[in-house]
Design a protein that fits this description.
Layout (H helix, E strand, L loop, with lengths): L11 E7 L5 H9 L17 E7 L3 E7 L7 H14 L5 E7 L6 H12 L4 E6 L14 E3 L8 H15 L15 E5 L13 H12 L3 E5 L4 H7 L6 E4 L4 H7 L5 E4 H9 L2 H8 L10 E5 L11 H14 L4 E5 L11 E6 L7 H13 L4 E3 H8 L3 H5 L13
Parallel strand pairs: 1-3, 1-4, 4-5, 5-6, 7-8, 7-9, 9-10, 11-12, 11-13, 13-14
Antiparallel strand pairs: 2-3
Length: 402
C-alpha cells in the first residue's frame, strides 16, 4: 500500500488548537509548505474542524486537523468550541498555537489541561517570533516560531516527529499469530449490502497483513467455503469470516482449524478485546424495555440487509426474547452520556483511529456500561465465542469463563 493510499484511520492524527487568529492555519501552511488551510484576518475563518490527509516528512502519512478558535463567541461559537474539544478524542499529537505577543490565555490553559488529562503528546508553538513584542515565557514542551518567516518551523516538525515515535502502532491485525507459508482463508459474503466491485477496508487491510507475514490468503464466499477447503492441498492455519456469516462458516470449518472474524480482529487491533468479550455476557441481563445502543464508526447508505440496523437487532431480539429499545449512531455521533444503555454494541472501528476507538471504550467502562463488538456478540449468540477468540494466547485466562 502506497503512502498516498494509507487509510485515514491508520494515519497519525495531528490536531492544531488555539485561539482565533493565533495563527493555526498559518502554522499548518508553514509546516506542510502548502496552502492547505485558509488564512484570513477575519475572525473565525475556520468554523468547523477541517481534516486534511497528506504526506509530511519525516512523519509519513498524517491527518492534520485544523480546529475552530477556542475563544469563539455566541451560541454557534459554543458549538464550534465543543467540536474542537471533541477532536481531542482522535488526536495522536496536539499542537497548541499561542499568540506569542499576548501569551497563554485562559482558553489556552484550559485546553492544555485537557490535553494533559488525556495523555496526548503535545507541543506549544508560540507564534509571531518575527514581532519585537513576541517575548513569551517558554516552558518545557514549548517552542518559539514564526509562520511568516518560517523561523523554527523545521524545529517544530522535528519535535512533532519525536512525539510521533511514541505513538507508533506496531500491533498487527493478524500477522502476530501467523508463521511464514501459513494458509489463511478469508470468507467474504456477497449480498445486497456488499459494496459493488470492491472489498471493504477491513478485508483489504487483513489481506495485506497476511501477505506481509509471508503467508498466503485465499478469498472465498460463505456459500463456497466448504468446497474451497476440500480443494486445498494443505490445511489452513486460520479461517477469517465476515461476522454475519459466523454460524454457517463455523459449521463448515473443521474444529482443528482456527476460526475468527474480521470484526474480532479489529476489536483486538484497535481496542480492548477482553473488555468487549466481557461486555457480550451482559446480554444475559437484558430486560424488557432496556435500551441498547448500536454504534458504527462510519456513515454509509443503509441497505435492506444492513447488519447494524436490521440484522443485529433481529438476532438480539431472537436471542433475548425481550422487547428492546434500539438506538443507532454513526460516524462521529457517539454520545458522551451512555447511562441510559444496558449495552453498547460497536462495530470493528475500521474507520476510526486507535485513540478514538479506545476513547469510546473508555467512556463505557468509566460509566459501568457493558460494551461489546459486532463480531464478539454474534459469536457469543451462536455459542462459538470461545472458539472465535482461542487464536489469541493473551486471552487464555479469560477463555476459562466462556
Amino acid at each position: 500500500m502506497s503512502l498516498s493510499n494509507t487509510p485515514a484511520a491508520e494515519r497519525l492524527h495531528i490536531g492544531i488548537f488555539g485561539r482565533i487568529n493565533a495563527g493555526k492555519s498559518s502554522i499548518i501552511n508553514a509546516v506542510t509548505a502548502q496552502n492547505i488551510a485558509i488564512v484570513s484576518q477575519v475572525k473565525g475563518t475556520t468554523t468547523d474542524p477541517v481534516y486534511k490527509t497528506m504526506e509530511l516528512l519525516p512523519l509519513g502519512p498524517v491527518m492534520i486537523i485544523d480546529t475552530p478558535g477556542l475563544d469563539d463567541e455566541g451560541e454557534l461559537g459554543k458549538l464550534r468550541i465543543q467540536r474542537t474539544y471533541q477532536v481531542l478524542n482522535k488526536t495522536d499529537i496536539a499542537v497548541l498555537v499561542v499568540d506569542g505577543v499576548t501569551g497563554m490565555s485562559d482558553e489556552d490553559n484550559k485546553i492544555l489541561s485537557r490535553i494533559k488529562d488525556k495523555n496526548i503528546p503535545y507541543i506549544v508553538a508560540f507564534n509571531r517570533a518575527d514581532l519585537p513584542d513576541c517575548k513569551p515565557d517558554l516552558f518545557p514542551g514549548s517552542i518559539l516560531v514564526s509562520a511568516l518567516t518560517n523561523q523554527n518551523i523545521e524545529l517544530l516538525k522535528e519535535e512533532i516527529a519525536k512525539l510521533s515515535s511514541k505513538e507508533t502502532n506496531n500491533k498487527r491485525i493478524v500477522g502476530d499469530i501467523l508463521e511464514p507459508n501459513d494458509l489463511v482463508v478469508l470468507v467474504v459474503p456477497i449480498d445486497s449490502s456488499a459494496p459493488k466491485g470492491r472489498l471493504i477496508l477491513p478485508q483489504q487491510q487483513t489481506i495485506r497483513d497476511i501477505l506481509d507475514s509471508d503467508s498466503t490468503a485465499i478469498v472465498t464466499k460463505d456459500t463456497t467455503l466448504k468446497d474451497t477447503l476440500a480443494k486445498l492441498g494443505q490445511k489452513p492455519r486460520l479461517v477469517i469470516t465476515d461476522s454475519q456469516a459466523f454460524a454457517r462458516v463455523n459449521k463448515d470449518t473443521p474444529n482443528d482449524i482456527m476460526l475468527t472474524s474480521f470484526s474480532i480482529l479489529f476489536s483486538r487491533y484497535k481496542g480492548k478485546l477482553d473488555l468487549q468479550i466481557k461486555g457480550a455476557t451482559a446480554l444475559e441481563k437484558i430486560n424488557d424495555n432496556d435500551y441498547v445502543l448500536i454504534s458504527e464508526g462510519c456513515t454509509h447508505h443503509r441497505q435492506c440487509e444492513d447488519i447494524g440496523t436490521v440484522k443485529l437487532p433481529g438476532w438480539i431480539n431472537k436471542y433475548t426474547k425481550k422487547k428492546i429499545n434500539f438506538e443507532f449512531t454513526g460516524g462521529t455521533g457517539f454520545p458522551d452520556d451512555l447511562s441510559k444503555y444496558a449495552l453498547v454494541v460497536h462495530c470493528g472501528g475500521c474507520m476510526l483511529n486507535e485513540r478514538e476507538m479506545k476513547y469510546r471504550l473508555q467512556c463505557a467502562e468509566d460509566q459501568n456500561v457493558p460494551i461489546t463488538n459486532y463480531g464478539v456478540l454474534i459469536a457469543y449468540m451462536n455459542g462459538i465465542l470461545k472458539r472465535s477468540v482461542a487464536p489469541f494466547k493473551e486471552l487464555s485466562e479469560l477463555l476459562c469463563i466462556l
